[in-house]
Write a structure and sequence with these properties.
The chain is built from ten helices and five strands, in the order ααβααββββαααααα. By secondary structure, it is mainly α. The chain has three domains: about 80 residues, Winged helix-like DNA-binding domain superfamily/Winged helix DNA-binding domain (Arc Repressor Mutant, subunit A, Orthogonal Bundle); about 70 residues, no CATH class; about 60 residues. The chain has a three-stranded antiparallel beta sheet. A two-stranded antiparallel sheet has the order 4-5. About 10% of the residues are buried.
């Protein structure tokens, strides 16, 4: 997963490659079309396009040309994923999701929400514009709710870190912060998660055991040390 995310940042960190992706987002294009649209030379274009193809962002396909000319190679977007980056005073996260919804499920969902699209181009475009606006509004409302939840999450993490700094030493805090988000099933697994020596982690867990009187966290600590 980490290598995949690093690859995405490497690709998207280059403005020319982003421009190529934007250019292809409306419709597939052949090489010279893209080169002309974003205004770069063919040699540079070839280098960037190859990087996009090699990493799976773009794929090629051929279409027959008129008058018996050789098939023309087209480029189109290929990847389908969501990448979300969150940064706050108490947390930095990168969430990556490349799950694709099966086409039959998309059809069921769309049939529930939308009526049949007209065969007339003008009517169809008007209806599609209306539906796109509705979907964009739904996404915006969901994003507002997500932002509200993240704000509450930030307050909770701030409290966790305050308790950690006021009551525990560095390794103990590291363990607590990890156990707030993960569910390690053994000392070995926890040690790998926080990149610390297993025996030092075990000693720190015993220290946490002695500092906690009762409650869920004490139970979790006890389960790891017994």
């Amino acid at each position: 997963m980490k290598n995949k995310i690093d690859s995405i940042f490497h690709i998207l960190g280059n403005k020319t490659r982003r421009d190529i992706l934007f250019a292809l987002s409306d419709e597939p294009m052949y090489f010279n079309q893209v080169s002309k649209k974003i205004g770069i030379g063919q040699q540079a274009m070839l280098r960037h396009m190859q990087a996009l193809v090699d990493t799976g962002f773009v794929r090629t396909y051929g279409e027959k040309s008129d008058f018996g000319a050789p098939d023309r190679k087209y480029y189109r977007l290929e990847s389908s994923f969501n990448l979300s980056i969150s940064l706050s005073e108490d947390e930095f996260t990168i969430d990556y999701n490349e799950e694709k919804i099966p086409s039959d499920k998309i059809e069921i969902l769309s049939n529930k929400k939308f009526k049949q699209i007209s065969d007339d181009p003008s009517n169809a475009l008007g209806t599609l514009r209306k539906y796109l606006t509705e979907i964009d509004n739904d996404i915006q409302n969901l994003q507002s709710e997500i932002n509200n939840l993240k704000a509450i999450r930030q307050m909770l993490l701030q409290k966790v870190h305050q308790i950690g700094q006021d009551n525990f030493i560095h390794l103990e805090r590291k363990i607590i912060y990890k156990m707030m988000k993960e569910n390690p099933t053994s000392v070995t697994e926890l040690s790998h998660m926080i990149s610390e020596n297993k025996f030092e982690v075990l000693n720190a867990l015993r220290g946490l055991h002695d500092k906690m009187d009762k409650g869920t966290m004490k139970t979790l600590v006890d389960e790891l040390t017994t």
